[in-house]
Write a structure and sequence with these properties.
The protein is about 60% helix and about 0% strand. The longest helix is centred in the middle third of the chain and has 35 residues, at about 20-55. By secondary structure, the protein is mostly helical. About 0% of the residues are buried. It has helices spanning about 1-10, 20-55. It is rod-shaped.
């Protein structure tokens, strides 16, 4: 018992059983991670749109394709 009391006395800071500041820190972390995830998704969407524009080149309209006939065999 004496050794256990000495060990507990030497502990500094909060332990796993203490939930004082952990709840706020957890909420902050969740909010930050969601915000970061949204920013990454937005960035990926912009990259995909720019890649689509590069690969598509000129966009064809119905008027430009009006003279083509499609045969189904």
């Amino acid at each position: 018992m004496r050794n256990k009391r000495e060990l507990n006395a030497s502990l500094k800071g909060s332990t796993l059983g203490d939930a004082d500041g952990d709840a706020e820190d957890t909420l902050k972390w969740i909010r930050k991670s969601k915000k970061k995830e949204k920013e990454l998704a937005k960035k990926r969407l912009e990259e995909l749109e720019s890649m689509d524009k590069v690969f598509q080149g000129d966009e064809y309209t119905e008027r430009a394709l009006g003279c083509f006939n499609v045969l189904h065999i």
